[in-house]
């Protein structure tokens, strides 16, 4: 729904909690030089070759053909990723990021529970309009991205005015879920909870719902996400 | 977001709580022969003349030029509307209704708190897939339509499987708000609460959030909403 908002001078937060933006924060936290988001497997392979980067991405829950790694944050330990460049293909997150670029966003960052505080601190410090862009899946809102948006709103709202009911909705749902985000996702049988559990990825889900375990701010500049 | 869902054989509930669908239920409850929704003031005037109907609709909170009545349910008492035809122009609700028609919806009904039970009873009896279509405003979701969707989901969910996180989100927010919907709308300073309060319409808001005070089921057939 990014087209509904004026992005000039705005800070756009790209949110794709399960698992793209959680993995981006983790890779950068563990020392990756940068993360380059691309929108197709072909571009990922090509760019990976050119710059000797680590190529990663999944389609339907499997490492995409021709790529080396998947979307799990646990694949990007410091031992592995430190000082390397990660070329990551994601569908929705990258699409949203490019949309934000085209529409003239002032600054673009990525957000997830693992870097919740870094995002909130940045938004408060910038003091510019904020658009929280939930990547969704096939254009449907999902619970975890709304929970993250709600967490951000809850923390920063005293510094901003809210002009969209969806922000109120997100905060309400977050406050209900706050005590145990994983239990809430499970109780609601959230679509991505369901899908990832089917792949045996409970550990990933729990990690991606944990605040501040990879607390850096990925900022998009010249095609790359770097730590601010 | 209606385009995301398969509407074949589905029952689509058009929701525009403040105030179109609340007013439709009220007019029919009070004996209107039918309500004909149209998407422009010009069509409303023309059709009103042809069939000697009561023309109604607002733009920017005022009765639209050339029409006789507004969007308030309180304008449609039994004394006034009994046995008459109401030609109502609304923007978002009518647009959504036409979209549902074009996409082959099985049946189309309108929903609002004043006819909550009638909607729920119908959905359970039909036992077909259900799409709850929130009319929104300029494409943004609003709190009251989500609350109504949540109320419906809460009441009918044991008869259906839920396959969309937005349904879980709607029910969560509804359960938080349930005890006092008006207070919740006020506390969240919901966009339409804010706008209608600016026109002095607290009474309308309170009425439109009251369950079952006009408990009929408006069903769309051949261009008209009639009581099933």
Automatic annotation (TrEMBL), chains A, B:
Organism per entry: Puia dinghuensis
Pfam family, one: 2-ph_phosp
Signal peptide annotation: none
Tagged with keyword Disulfide bond: no
KW Ligase (keyword) present: no
Protein name from the UniProt record: Probable 2-phosphosulfolactate phosphatase
Top-level EC class as recorded in UniProt: hydrolase
EC number: 3.1.3.71
């Amino acid at each position: 729904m990014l087209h509904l908002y004026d992005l000039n001078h705005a800070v756009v937060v790209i949110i794709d909690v399960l698992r793209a933006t959680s993995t981006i924060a983790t890779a950068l936290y563990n020392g990756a030089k940068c993360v380059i988001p691309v929108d197709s497997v072909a571009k990922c392979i090509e760019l990976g070759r050119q710059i000797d980067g680590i190529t990663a991405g999944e389609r339907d829950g499997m490492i995409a053909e021709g790529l080396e790694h998947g979307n799990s944050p646990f694949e990007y330990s410091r031992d592995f990723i430190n000082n390397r460049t990660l070329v990551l293909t994601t569908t929705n997150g990258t699409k949203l990021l490019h949309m934000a670029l085209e529409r003239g966003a002032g600054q673009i960052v990525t957000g997830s529970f693992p870097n919740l505080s870094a995002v909130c601190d940045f938004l408060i410090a910038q003091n510019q309009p904020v658009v929280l862009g939930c990547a969704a899946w096939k254009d449907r809102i999902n619970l975890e991205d709304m929970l993250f948006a709600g967490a951000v709103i809850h923390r920063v709202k005293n510094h901003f005015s809210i002009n969209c009911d969806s922000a109120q909705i997100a905060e309400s749902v977050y406050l209900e879920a706050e005590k145990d985000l994983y239990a809430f996702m499970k109780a609601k049988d959230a679509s991505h909870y369901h899908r990832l559990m089917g792949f045996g990825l409970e550990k990933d889900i729990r990690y991606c719902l944990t605040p501040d375990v990879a607390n850096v701010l990925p900022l998009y500049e010249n095609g790359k996400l770097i730590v601010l």
